[in-house]
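Section 3.1: Structural characterization of target chains.
Under the original work plan, the team committed to producing a structural model for every single-chain target entering the pipeline before any wet-lab resources were allocated. The record below documents one such target. The sequence was received from the expression subgroup and is listed exactly as submitted; it comprises 320 residues.
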Amino acid sequence: MSGSQPAAEHLRGAIDLSSLVNRGTTTGAPGTPGPAAAPGGPGTAPAGGGVVEVPSLVLEGSDANFSQFLDLSMQVPVLVDLFAGAPTPGLTQIVESYGGRLLLVTVDVTANVQLRQAFQVQSVPAAVALIGGRPLQLFAGALPEDQVRQVLEQVLQAAAQSGVTGTASASGATEDTEPVEPPLPPLHAEAYEAIEQGDYPRAITAYQTAIAQNPTDKMAVAGLAQVSLLNRLQGKTIDQIRAAAAANPNDLDAQLDVADLDLSGGHVEDAFDRLLTRFETADADERNTIRTRLLELFEVAGLDDPRVMRARGRLTNLLF
């Protein structure tokens, strides 16, 4: 579907998380495992296997509590969703379908600068696995469910090879804890359900309705940009997109497809440069089309991304 990299050869660990180890943690913080989650401590499962009690299969990570998830990854593989503003659609349901063989930790990198730096986040959404305390980069950009599952199967195989074969058991919220994630607004929930079913047009309609009702709904704006990208790339292959662009360098639609492909594969600057370069010589109608697409891709990459800021500045100079 995209230029993202979904196979085992792309499980790689080039991230230094040493700055997150031995950080102070808050005992019993809502939505996070307490001290009992540390491997080898009293009352815990043996490191590498057994059953690990957690409040939920989906937990919220932060600069302050992340060392606890490094500990958890000694027993259960952990998928980390690095996003800006809104979690990546569909990951919660996919992880929960594995019945505790995986945990999902969501991290808003706009609010957790240390984690963004530690994970070397270049674009969002992005996914990283933790196995035995070791980070493995997985993919950047949005992937369809079947490709996400292919990646997660490789993660589970790597975990088994490392002896990390535990299972998480969700105890659920108690009177002293709050739900990890608040319920989604109805239209957001409808969009997520549609994405799970691969019905991107219905998800687009739901997000558009949410924005019409509340133009300041940033989560809906970001969600609309992400699902629109998925919808445009659905049914197209990498080879088809690149061949069409090479054969028709003056075809704007073909160039827009390549920009979508580049962004979904994490080649953010390539996507922006392609469209901004075309913008320089485009006529008024093409400029409007390119500007609209750039604004959507800015949302997908994250408005606080330095590359977005640079591209936005270049676009402004071209406009005025």
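The two ends are 36 Å apart (CA to CA).
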